[in-house]
Request: fold
Amino acid sequence: MFEAVRNNKRVAQVILAVLIVPFAFFGMDAYFSDGPGGGEVATVGKSRITAAEFDQALRTQQDRMRDAAGGQVDRALLESPALRQAVLDNLVNQRLLALYSAEKHFSVSAQQLQSTIAAVPAFQESGKFSLGRYDAQLRAQGMTPEMFESRLAQDLRIQQLALSVGESAFVADGSAQRFLAAQTEEREIRELRFPASRYLAEVKLADNAVQAYYDANPARYERPARLKAEYVVLDAEAVRRRVSVSDDEVRAFYEGNQSRFGQPEERKARHILIQVGADASADELAQAQAKVDALLARLRKDPKQFAAIAKEASQDPGSASRGGDLGFFSRGAMVKAFDDAAFSLKKDEISEPVRSDFGFHIIQVTDIKAATVRPFAEVKDEIVAELRDQAASRRYAELAEQFSNLVYEQADSLQPAAEQLGLQIRHSDWIERSAEGLGDYRNPRLAEALFSDDSVRNHRNTEAVEAGPNILVAARVQEYEAARRLPLDEVRSQIETHLRNEAAAARAAEEGGKVLAALQKGEATEGQWSATRKLQRAAPALPAEAMKAVFSASTAKLPAYVGAPAAEGGFIVYSIDAVHRPELKKDDPNLAAVKSQYERLMAERDFYAFLAELRQRYKVETKLPAVQQTEN
Amino acid sequence: MAVYDLEEQEQISALKGWWEDYGNWVTGLIAVAALAAVGWQGWQWYQGKQAGEAGVLYFAVQQAVEHDDAQKARDAAGQLIGQYPGTTHAQMGALLSAGVQFHKGELDNAKAQLAWAAEKGADPALRDLARLRLATVLQQQGALDEALARLQPVPAGQYKARFEDLKGDVLATQGKSADARVAYQAAMDAIGQDDERAATLREVVRVKLESLEG
Reply:
C-alpha cells in the first residue's frame, strides 16, 4: 500500500484532495446526509427535523382539520403559511421537550406504562383491560406493541413536564379579584358631540382637490374586469333525457315485478292438528294416524261440525279455541306441506290428513281473496321513470367523460358538446373574478377558470368543472371588459362628497380638540351635554376607540375629559363624572369561574415560557420551505 | 519479509528511539483517556439510575395529584427531594405537589416545597418558576412584603412578564398605585405586541393597569 503511494504520488495527491475537500468545508456530516442543509426544515440543538417529518405532520394536521370541518375546508387555509408555521412550531416544541427529557434522563417505569395502557377505554372490554383488544387496536393502526409503547413512553415523559410546569399553576385570590373588579368597573359619562355635518357648510374645497384625489387614488375608482359567459350544464336531468326506455323493457319489468304492483292471492283456512313430532316412533305415528282418521270420518259425515271438532280435539293451542281458524295468509307464510295443501284446495273442501313437522293437519279453506294486480297502463309511467333513473345513473359517468372531452377537444365552441349531448347553451350576466359561480351553479373555480388567460385571451372553453354532485359545467367567455378606470366626470360628485365629509370630520376633530383642551385646563365651555350614561369596562357600548379612551383615562381627578372620533363621523368629548369600583365579596359567584380561567391562562403562559427558555437553550434554527405552488 | 532493506531498518530504529523517549507518555495518555471514558460512562449510568428511581417517585406524586390527595403528594415529593435532590424530577415533583397543596389550602406545605425548588433545585428556569409560585403563595397568605422580596430580582428570560404582572398585583393591593403602574407597564413591554398567543395575557394586564386608582 505504502509502496503504491510512493510510486504514484500524483494519483494519491488527487485522491487525498478529493477526500479532504468535503471534510474541510462541510465536516463529516456531508458524507451521511444529502449535503449541507439538504432535506431539513429545522435544527434543534444537534438534532434535525427533516422535510419528510414536516410533510407528514402537515398532512396529519390538514386531515384533522378536514375531518373536523366535515370535509369543507378552504384550501387557502390548508396551505396557508400560518398553518405551516404552526405545524413547524409544534414539531420544534416536541423536539425540545424530547431533548430536555432525554438530557435529564427522564424515564417511564414499566409499571407506569402498564397502568396507563390499562386505563385507555379503547383497550378495555366490559371495563377491564383486554390483551386481545389491545393487539387488535394496534394492528388496526399498523403499529406493533413495541412501537406504540415507545411512542407512549415519549408522550408520558413530555406529560410529566406539562403537568409540573404548566398544569400545576395556581393563582392567588387577590389577582383574580383584581381582574374581575377591573372588568366590572363602571364609569358614568356624558357626551358632547361635534357632528361632522355641522361643519359641512364651511368646507371649501380647493379647485384642483378632486382632480388631485382622483390622481392619487387610481385603484379606488377602477371597475374590475368583468365578463359575460355562455355555459352548458351536464346534470342528471340532461342525462335522463338522453336515455330511452323501450316498451318491451317496461313490459318485461312489469311482468318480472308483479309483486310490486299488486296484492298476491290470500287464503283463509282453519285446521285441526294432532301433534306428532318429526322424530316420533312408528307406534306414536300409528296412534296419531288413527286419531286423525277418526276425526276425518266424523267431519266427512258432517262438515258443519269443523269448528266444534277443532275446539274439542285440535292440539294447536293457538287456534283450537277459535274453531281452528288461522285467518288470511299469503303463499309462503306457513310450513311447506301445509302451504301446498292450503293453496291447492277448493273453497270449503276438507283435505286429507297432511303431515308436517308439527303433526297431522286436517285443513279446510274457508275463503279466497284472489290476487289483484294494478293494470299495466296505470303503472307504466312509474316504471318508465324508474328505468330512466337507473339507466341515467349508469350512463352518467360515460357521458361526463364524453362531455369533458368534447369541451376540451373542440375548445373554440360549446356548440358541439351542446348538440351531441342535447344540452342547452345558457348565458350569464356580467360577473367579476370574485363571483361565486355561474347562475345557479356555485363553484368559485368557474369564475377563476373563466378569468384565466387561456379563457380570456385564447378564447378557449374552460374545463368541465364540478358544481355539485353529478353536475358538470363548462363555460366560455362571450364578452370581456378589462379593468377600467372610471372617467373623472363619472365619479366627480362621489369624490367631492368624500372630500367634503373628510374635511368636515377634520374640522369637527379640531373644534372638539379645542374644547377638550379647555375642559382639561378647567375652563368653562359652552355646548349641549347629553344625559348621563353608565358604562362597564367588560361590556363595550361605544366604539372600541371610545371605550379605550374612557376606560384608560386617569380618574385621579373627576370629572376627567377624553375625546374620540365618532362612528358616524365627527368627534365626541366625553366627561367622566364618576367611577364605581365594585366591592367583590369572597364568595362572589363569578369569582370562582374567573379564577379558574385565570389559572388556566397562567398555566398555559408558564408552559409556553418554559418552552421559550428551552428554545434559547438548545438553539433552534428553522428554515421553512416555501409553499409549493400547486397547479390550477 | 525476512530481510529488511536499509531504508526500512533505519525507519524501524528511528521508531524504537521515539518510543523510548515518549512511550511512557503515550501509555499514560491512553490510560487517562480510558479512565475518563469509563468514568463518563459510569457517571451517565449513575445519573440514569438516579433519574429512573426519581421517576418512580415522581409518578407517585403524579398519581396522588390525580386523586387530589395533598397528603400523599406532599409525602412523595418530600421523599423525592430528600433522596434525589440533584434530579430535575425532584424540582418538578415540588412544583407539582405545591399545586395541589395550594388548592387544598395547605399553604405552608406549598411554601416549604417551593422554597426548596426555588433555592436548591437543579434547573435555573424551573427555579424561577418555583420562585414565582412561591411569591403567589405568600400573596395568598397576605405576606405582601415577603412576596415582593421573592419577586426580586426579576429574571431576564421568558418569565419576566409573569413576574412583573404579579408584582403589579401585590403593589396594587398595598395601595402603591404608581409602583404598580410601573410593574404592569413593564409586564406589557415584556409581552410585546407580536406574539398572538400572549394576546390574552396582554389584555388581562392592560385591564388591570387601566383600572388602577389614581
Q: What stands out?
A: Chain B touches chain A through 54 residues (CB under 8 Å). Chain B is about 80% helix and 0% strand. The two ends of chain B are 101 Å apart (CA to CA). The CA atoms of residues 146 and 174 of chain B lie 12 Å apart.
